[in-house]
Fold this protein.
Amino acid sequence: MINGMESVEPDAIDALVVFFENLSNNSSIPVPVSGWNHSSDPCEAKWTGIVCHDENLSVKSITFDSFNLSGTFNPSFICNIASLATSIVVISIKNNNLHADNLELIANCNQLTHLYVSGNRFVGNLPEAFSRLNNLKRLEISDNGFSGDLPNLPRISGLIEFLAQNNRLSGSIPEFDFSNLANFNVSNNNFSGKVPPGGDRFTPASYTGNVGLCGEPLPNKCGVPGDEHPLAAQTSDDSKKKGSNWTEILMYSGYALIGLAILLLIMLKVCKRGKKKKEELVEEGDDDTYRSKDENTLESVDFKSINMSKSEVFGGNSIESGPVSSSLIVLTSPEVNGLKFEELLKAPAELLGRGKHGSVYKVKCEEQGMTLAVKRIKDWVLPSDEFKLRMKRLNHVKHPNLLPVVAFYCSRQEKLMVYEYQPNGSLFKLLHGMPMGQTFDWGSRLGVASTIADALAFMHDELHLDNIPHGNLKSSNILLNNNMEACISEYGLMSVNNFNNSPIANNSMQFDQVDGFRGDIYAFGVILLELLTGKMPMVENNGMDLATWVVSVVKEEWTVEVFDRALIREGASEERMVNLLQIAIKCVDRSPELRLSINQVASMINNIKEEDERSIDVSESPFDIRI
Ligand SMILES: Nc1ncnc2c1ncn2[C@@H]1O[C@H](COP(=O)(O)OP(=O)(O)OP(=O)(O)O)[C@@H](O)[C@H]1O
């Protein structure tokens, strides 16, 4: 007992020691492990891998990720001891070489909110007992050898993450409440049948590698002869036999009829559209203005003015290969190597949006099997040579949360940037365009804030001497990649003159002596305010922009008023929200020199995040966290 607080009971200490002996199997553990003996207290002596609840010194989490452990994970040792079973909320043993024993007894640890066992050698069925872990929020079982049907995991109503890729799981995917899930991946298994309703909220990457799976978002439709994978028919045979053949024949004939009707309708529409387009062309003449039809090609909608000979391709030249001619687009990504400019112009293109500094098109390049986003920059005043030098410099600075430019085109008339298309949209969309009933939880918002701060800090460090800030940082330029991780896009596209005209410059007032880096800090502060308030940056609040409004409310000591109601409802820590708000306010200070540096910002946010992770509240209702 210390300071009048309970310490861990002796039987729990004994159980933990045996649990660890089984995990380690006397293997050589690269990192020194302290504690894990019968003579010390896990909380007082701070055993490696153990975090305790502050209030009563009981074990809260056990973490042994990447410890090269090659023994057995046997939850019975800890989950059969009441004091441990009721206190442990996190078990993380990712990336070891562990086998599992008595896995079903994990159900006794029913306070678990986070269970991470990915990257081990677990085999056999995932026990039905997992579905009784009704406080679970995040479950990661990927990269193991699990097989057979999944248990009834959808009954865990608070689950926000399920990662099970790279196993041998089979049967159908259970009907999860996908609107609750933030992360979901069952790729590279043996699942079959139809993706359940709502599953198309995730990209095909969450489902690929399951030969028997069909339906949205996968390209192969269910029940369409020749489209469904032959193995799908085979694997679903057993269950089909159980049903009545007649019902199925009727059902499929129904599908076929509906399909035929839809096909006819589409054909009718296409004919009409073709006719209309012809009429429009006659009316409009052949000018070079933008025609923002939804589905088109770059050549037809946007780039007729590009002055370039057809022999000028952009596959063979690398940015490293010395001086480039003014009209060449230079590729830097092996995936799109060989793509010709001509092909890019002819590929189906769709206007994604038009910003202050240009338009972005989604372009499908069938041959490369890639979807690209092409940005045409408007009114770029930086001379072409300088633009190329900048692209060359940017090409050398890589960060996992920075979306790289895969190609660019630069002539006197045109500047085009080519990126990989990110199917999960932008942070702006996530914050301000969520369907009703879905929210973006505090932990995820904090995660995005720290990811972006870290990436921006890295970029500022790398590019300070080159004087290349982002220059146009905003939530629509933060894109979510396939793993739903935030990535900064369009870094360094703005020239100083463009930057002077940008909303950031206008809002931050003090840009006569432009310091783009401090402008980025201001812009990042606005993103933090969007995350905290859920409000759009330029939406007027009593005639004020977001930063001015927040500062004025906080001055009146109505701080709580600014927070997004969804965060309050979720029960996010007010203390940590206020801490983040204080950082944001220091970022949007009107005097650039009073703003924090990005390194300070990143480390402060990371502290808040760590504190938040440490304080996973056992009593938190599973219904509270939603994304
Ligand atoms: N690589 C990409 N993948 C998917 N969507 C993208 C990509 N790049 C941009 N977008 C989306 O395209 C839309 C238009 O982008 P654009 O950059 O023109 O708009 P903006 O950021 O509001 O304006 P600007 O950058 O000109 O100030 C935005 O919704 C943006 O999120």
Remarks:
- The mean pLDDT is 78.
